[in-house]
Specification:
The structure holds two protein chains of two kinds. By secondary structure, chain A is α+β, with helices and mostly antiparallel strands. Chain A folds into three domains: 197 residues, Aldehyde oxidase/xanthine dehydrogenase, a/b hammerhead (Aldehyde Oxidoreductase, domain 3, Alpha-Beta Complex); 341 residues, 2-Layer Sandwich (Aldehyde Oxidoreductase, domain 4); 135 residues, Aldehyde oxidase/xanthine dehydrogenase, molybdopterin binding domain (Aldehyde Oxidoreductase, domain 4, 2-Layer Sandwich). Chain A is 28% helix and 23% strand. In chain A, strand 10, helix 6 and strand 11 form a beta-alpha-beta unit. In chain A, helix 10 runs parallel beside helix 19, helix 15 runs parallel beside helix 16 and helix 18 crosses helix 19. Chain B is an alpha+beta fold. Chain B folds into two domains: 75 residues, Beta-grasp domain (Ubiquitin-like (UB roll)), CATH 3.10.20; 69 residues, DNA polymerase, domain 1 (Orthogonal Bundle). Chain B is built from five helices and five strands. The termini of chain B are far apart. The C terminus of chain B is likely disordered. Classes of the chains: A alpha+beta, B alpha+beta. At the A-B interface, helix 1 and helix 18 of A face helix 2, helix 3, helix 4 and helix 5 of B.
Chain lengths: 800, 169
């Protein structure tokens, strides 16, 4: 009897190669006759290019080619998700060229590429390229960029506005705010972040002159989408002549979803060199300057309600910084994925959100872990604390009073998810928020906080406690919603899986999703082992190569476990059905009489008459005795388009201590109670939560991308950007409630982003709580010692 | 100008002709094809390139290849015996101490240095010992648990001499 591994803490299949140094990331791949690319990047944040002289660089030893924008015949990179989709919102679109031609809009935009025999020679030759620059005035702040007199980046975008978009009931919300007993207002900044996967991006382009085909090895979350976009929208080559391969990926967190300039550069360079493979590996500085950043919102918040804690309305105006040109789905993040979930887990009758997308002289902003939902959660969770403070109510009690009650699911939120969804029915499918809150409060010792605060004061510390109750939209998404119905990105969102059963009964499952550290080779094997009743060891999971895997939309938006897995379960169902029909033939019984128990196919009532999955696979492969009309071999493909998203939720509690003398914040306790539905592998779920929480805490306390007014990236290396280190965290305490999602057969929801969505607000709320004795109501992140100390001194000065 | 160097890497005598500007990590990855040692930054911050040189953890992006003349270098590829895994490797696997795996070789090498000095480190000591190694996936929690587990296994009779020891998985 095979042990069913679904739901178990199974060690990961992929780890052996990764712990022994046998992983294969892009930079580990060496090809015959390979040469190397380096990209010259703009030192100015805004400048016209008068001329580029590459003569000296071309003459250097070992240099094979130097390209500028003029040498690249391809179209600009695509932007696939205009705000509002086709719903009539004006999007003033400007996207990057592979290499800038006339002007640059941020420091780090590529202007020339050198191809040389070694990486060092390519790097050396960059210094010999002479660019005649005409520097222009710069603006890096999204709100300032929209004001009169601000430097203008693009002719088609007056006041640097990409779009103006809104959701919700404007007049109803206005009325509710005008008549409310209590209204709290606050300007809230959600600072810009640099995502920092440990592996930077990189790629190898190879043109095969013998077959007129292109191959690219890329550190990408979306090889299938990249093939489509590069072929159809950038390079103008037939899709079937481009092969995209993602090898092991060293983390991504959203940054590796998009179409980047280096993809067409290495492919074209290889063609120009007659087929020598061209490798480009991004330096960390380049990663900071030219791979997408995340967040960067300025929000004017109003929250209204009664003195007894009934919230009646939230209204926001948000300036979303989208950078100097638009990344692949940049506008979709602060609109659909942000404003449509602004009410969070609360039953708030009136919501109105205006979002202004803005160009600035900074690198483009796009999806970073959570993508819009952390920004929304931060706004609503700060709002709840500010409101609770205003009416003198316990923040936990205010949350409890306003939760969507468990008997009101499925729940349509007033931010218009349901109404914006075209043919799909988008609603919050399930939830039971109070038990998660209660559990988290108990674990944190919430009832004893007053005593703990007094004790901390005796040590020169100010203790604070912060809550964050969140929901996440996971498992994106029905194609009808995210596709071309006025909301989405003009493409589908289904997933795929193929299962082949070899003669020996060993199974290969090939999927369209693409792991970047999540352990898909393990979790898919757990699921298919369960479905077919076979050991995990008999299954291998293949992915990430457009040649040989069915088309898939990739892994992001916490979608693999709910959408990808369901495709795999469907494919397994088809395999099982065909095996059952063949078992009936072998056992001379009718199909209806064959019952399946794991890997055993038995005749009902005659338990001795049975065939194993392996016996069936063997016979069906040889097909000596296949019945009329039955195809040989077990090989089935399934595609799955989800009818709805999934909706994880939970409550996180952070406890911090602020040092009065230095302003240093110490995170002393962190409790997370998450409901992600059923779990395929609880060990992997915990790991996803740990990492997500750490990234969110990083935003609250330390991280921030800082541009000078001249557009120079001041936090331009790991020396300057405060990436969290091990000693900065306490041991994170996790627990769960389990409310299975009704959307998919195994009741999973997704967990990739939950930690990052919840944790930022919990920690920020805790610090603001700690600073209440100073009369401080709100501080913007990151809550560094400098920020906190200055605020405390200012408050003391004011009180004196 | 090219310098001739000779050193011991993962127990084998190796020789190379290198430019003076060549980094140890380039020598290992590009000349010796030991690609388990990774490069994650330009500023000696991330620790993905950590190896041991004469038993001490070193960021191989911050050492010139010529400085390794005569040294004994161990990389992640040299940690496991032929028929198994090093205790730290086993512990990282068992404790889910890795996700994308990019920082993992450097983490394991830094941990080997720690456990070579300290048989029974506290969690606090472990967290400080890996200060020079960034991980963006795990929040460090399971890495700390893995190192603690490896230390316990070592005290229970395993051995952690880099490149020679290790227990089968």
């Amino acid at each position: 009897m095979t042990i069913d591994m679904l739901g178990k803490r199974v060690k990961r299949v992929e780890d052996r190669r990764l712990i022994t140094g046998e992983g294969r990331y892009v930079d580990d791949i060496k090809l015959q006759s390979m040469v190397y690319c380096a990209i010259l990047r703009s030192p100015y944040a805004h400048a016209n290019i008068r001329s580029i002289d590459t003569t000296a660089a071309k003459a250097m030893p070992g240099v094979l080619d130097v390209m500028t924008g003029a040498d690249i015949p391809y179209n600009p990179l695509p932007m696939a998700w205009p705000a509002g989709g086709s719903a009539g919102i004006q999007n003033n679109v400007n996207t990057p060229r592979a290499l800038a031609t006339d002007s640059v809009k941020w420091t780090g935009e590529g202007v020339a590429a050198v191809i040389a025999e070694t990486p060092e020679l390519a790097q050396d030759a960059l210094e010999a390229i002479i660019v005649d620059w005409e520097p222009l005035p710069t603006v890096v702040d999204a709100e300032k960029a929209t004001q009169p007199g601000a430097p203008q980046l693009h002719e088609n975008a007056p006041n640097n506005v990409v779009f103006e978009w809104s959701v919700g009931d404007k007049s109803g919300t206005g009325g509710a705010i005008d008549t409310a007993e209590v209204v709290v207002r606050q300007r809230i900044v959600n600072q810009r972040l640099i995502p920092n996967p440990m592996e930077t991006r990189g790629d190898i382009g190879w043109y095969n002159p013998g077959t007129d085909e292109y191959t690219i090895w890329m550190s990408s979350q979306t090889p299938h989408i990249q093939r489509l976009l590069l072929a159809a929208f950038v390079m103008g080559i037939p899709e079937h002549r481009l092969r995209c391969i993602s090898p092991d990926i060293g983390g991504a967190f959203g940054t590796k979803i998009f179409t980047y300039a280096d993809y067409p550069i290495v492919l074209l360079a290889s063609k120009r060199l007659g087929g020598r493979p061209v490798k480009w590996i991004e330096s960390r500085r380049e990663n900071y300057q030219s791979t997408i950043h995340g967040r960067d919102h300025i929000t004017y918040l109003e929250i209204a309600g009664s003195k007894n804690g009934e919230i009646s309305a939230i209204r926001v105006k948000t300036y979303a910084n989208l950078g100097g040109r638009l990344s692949t789905i940049g506008p979709g993040i602060p609109t659909t994925l942000y404003a449509r979930v602004l009410s969070g887990c609360y039953k708030i009758p009136n919501i109105y959100a205006e979002v202004v997308g803005v160009y600035t002289n900074t690198v483009f902003v796009d999806a970073y872990r959570g993508a819009g939902r952390p920004e929304a959660t931060y706004v609503v969770e700060r709002a709840m604390d500010l409101f609770a403070g205003e009416i003198g109510m316990d923040p936990a009690e205010l949350r409890r009073r306003n939760f969507i009650p468990p008997d009101e699911f499925p729940y349509e939120n007033p931010s218009g998810l349901g109404t914006a969804s075209g043919g799909a029915k988008i609603y919050i499918d399930s939830g039971n928020y109070e038990p998660a809150l209660d559990k988290a409060l108990a674990m944190a010792g919430y009832a004893g906080m007053d005593k703990a605060k007094k004790e901390a004061r005796s040590r020169g510390k100010y203790l604070g406690v912060g809550l964050s109750s969140y929901i996440e939209v996971c498992g994106v998404a029905p194609s009808k919603w995210i596709g071309a119905v006025g909301e989405g990105w003009g493409a589908a969102m289904w997933e795929s899986a193929n299962i082949k059963v070899h003669l020996t009964g060993k199974v290969v499952i090939t999927v369209g999703t693409q792991p970047q550290g999540q352990g898909h080779e393990t979790t898919y094997a757990q699921i298919i082992g369960h479905e077919l009743g076979i050991p995990m060891d008999d299954i291998i999971v293949q992915h990430s190569d457009t040649q040989g895997t069915p088309f898939g939309y990739g892994s992001y938006g916490s979608r693999t476990s709910s959408v990808g897995s369901t495709a795999a379960i469907k494919a397994a169902g088809k395999i099982r059905e065909k095996a059952r029909r063949y078992a009936a033939h072998m056992l001379e019984a009718s199909v209806e009489d064959i019952e399946v128990d794991g890997a055993e196919y038995r005749v009902k009532g005659s338990p001795d008459k049975k065939k194993t999955f392996q016996e069936i696979a063997f016979a069906l492969d040889l097909a000596f005795d296949a019945p009329e009309g039955m195809e040989p071999y077990l090989d089935e493909t399934a595609y799955y388009d989800t009818p709805n998203c999934t909706w994880p939720f939970g409550t996180h509690v952070a406890i911090v201590e602020v040092d009065e003398a230095t302003g240093k914040v110490e995170l002393v306790k962190y409790v997370a109670v998450d409901d992600v539905g059923n779990k395929i592998n609880p060990m992997i779920v915990d790991g996803q939560l740990h990492g997500g929480i750490a990234q969110g805490v990083g935003q609250a306390l330390w991280e921030g991308a800082v541009y000078g007014d001249d557009g120079q990236l001041l936090s331009g290396s790991m020396l300057d950007y405060a990436l969290p280190r091990a000693s900065w965290f306490p041991h994170l305490e996790l627990d769960e409630t389990v409310t299975p999602s009704p959307v998919n057969p195994i009741g999973v929801k997704g967990v990739g982003e939950a930690g990052a969505i919840a944790s930022t607000a919990a920690v920020a709320n805790a610090v603001n709580d700690a600073l209440k004795p100073f009369g401080i109501r709100h501080l913007d992140m990151p809550l560094t010692p400098q920020t906190v100390w200055k605020a405390m001194q200012a408050a003391k000065g004011a009180q004196a | 100008m090219v310098a001739h160097i000779s050193l011991t890497v993962n127990g084998k005598q190796r020789e190379a002709d290198v430019e003076p500007r060549r980094l140890l990590v380039q020598l290992l990855r590009e000349d010796f094809d030991l690609t388990g040692t990774h490069v994650g930054c330009d500023t000696s911050q991330c620790g993905a390139c950590t190896v041991t040189v004469d038993g001490k953890a070193v960021k191989s992006c911050t050492m010139l290849a010529v400085q390794a003349e005569g040294a004994t270098v161990t990389t992640i590829e040299g940690m496991a015996p032929a028929d198994g895994l090093h205790l730290l490797q086993t512990a990282f696997w068992e404790s889910h101490g890795l996700q994308c795996g990019f920082c993992t070789p450097g983490m394991i090498m830094a941990a080997a240095d720690l456990l070579g000095r300290t048989a029974d480190p506290t969690d606090d000591e472990i967290r400080h010992a890996i200060e020079g190694n960034f991980c963006r996936c795990t929040g460090y929690q399971n890495i700390v648990i893995a190192i603690r587990a490896a230390a316990a296994a070592m005290r229970a009779g395993g051995t952690l001499a880099a490149g020679t020891a290790g227990q089968g998985a």
